[in-house]
Amino acid sequence: MSSVPRHSEEELRQQWAFLDALVDRQAASLKSGVQDPEEEDLTVPMVATDTAYLEEISNLTQRVTTLEDERATLLRRIDLSEEARMAAESGRAAAETARLSAERSLAAERTRVAAARPVQTPTPPRPAPPRPAPRVPPAPPVAGAAPGQGRVNPPTATKSRRKSWWQRIRE
User: Fold this and answer.
1) What distance in Å separates the CA atoms of residue 102 and residue 134, rounded to the nearest whole number?
2) Residue among 73, 53, 72 at smallest CA distance from 61
3) 81-to-9, 87, 91, 92, 145 alpha-carbon distances in Å
4) What is the pLDDT of residues 35-46, one digit of tens each?
5) Going by fewer Cβ within 10 Å, which terminus of the chain is more open, N or C?
6) Do 29 and 35 contact (CB within 8 A), yes or no?
7) Is 136 helix (H, G, I), strand (E, B) or coil?
8) Is 141 within 8 Å of 150 (Cβ atoms)?
9) Where on the phi/psi map is residue 144: left (φ > 0), alpha (ψ -120 to 50), or beta?
């Protein structure tokens, strides 16, 4: 703090005199029972109770109660659905863990069975016996055709294979 006073002695005396006068006025008004208009309590005049007002208030109160009950019900439903969601998530996690465990067990069992199986050399497959070619009766001659021209080419003894899609595209 500085040692230089901010206010002169005269200014301080004026402020003290003003505050003393203010306190004296307030004390006098309190003794007489009259207060400042800002401090007076304003009384709200009561409206005569009418049955229409009472019914409206009753209806509004009932609606508020109904809305509060609905809100409480909705909050309970939200809580229950959240619990169900959490239970479903934990169930899915447990099912996933069980699936992974079963896959590991199956892989371990296959490895164990493969290790216990004796090593066998593969035997070559036996060739199948040849099948006889089917007999096809000769086609009847076409009327009006020269001899030897009315016949359809006989099928060959070898089995014709159908071409695959890539062979057809290449051609």
Assistant:
1) 54
2) 53
3) 76, 10, 15, 16, 88
4) 666 655 555 556
5) N
6) yes
7) coil
8) yes
9) left
